Amino acid sequence: MYLPETGCSDDYANLKEILTRPINWELIRQQYDEMVKFATALRLGTAQAEAILRRFTRSNLQHPTYQALAELGKALKTSFLSNYLHEESVRREIHEGLNVVENWNSANEFVFYGDGGELSSNRLEDQEISVLSLHLLQLCMVYVNTLMIQKVLEDPVWQDRMQVVDYRALSPLIYAHINPYGRFDLDMNKRLPIDDDFKMAG
Questions:
Q1: Which of 50, 65, 71, 181 could cross-link 34 (Cys pair, CB 3.0–4.6 Å)?
Q2: How many Å apart are CA 150 and CA 48, to the nearest integer?
């Protein structure tokens, strides 16, 4: 976290261990017009973010506009962290959001298990097929789970048991009931036709 101005560290005695230098507001003021120009270009789509970043990083990281943008980012980060530490409701909201994201990532790893869940090919076409296949699996899983949950909740017994907090906890991002490897039925009273396979091979 960064100090809002010089000489005010004593006002935040409990945060001294995580506070660093003051924000350079003067640099932000000096480069304000340039920052607005780049932000407008991004918003209107007349410039790509990658091209702007490449211009800064390839030419000079000491570029004043680049430094001003970084300084503004530090101010925004400090403001967010201050709000996070001060408001319990914000911490709860972020925690709940992170739980959803983590659950979704776990589901992705579960359904996208081939090659360790990695895009092993360098070919763009293969990567696109893999990602589209993952999206298809995600959508199918969420759709089927939603139908199953709706079917269960049609039962009046479950409707009477459900409270507001229970409805808030409902999510289609569940996969404990799914077998990604398929199902193999084995009849222990029937012999496998191994002999026939050997005869065909011979």
A1: 65
A2: 43
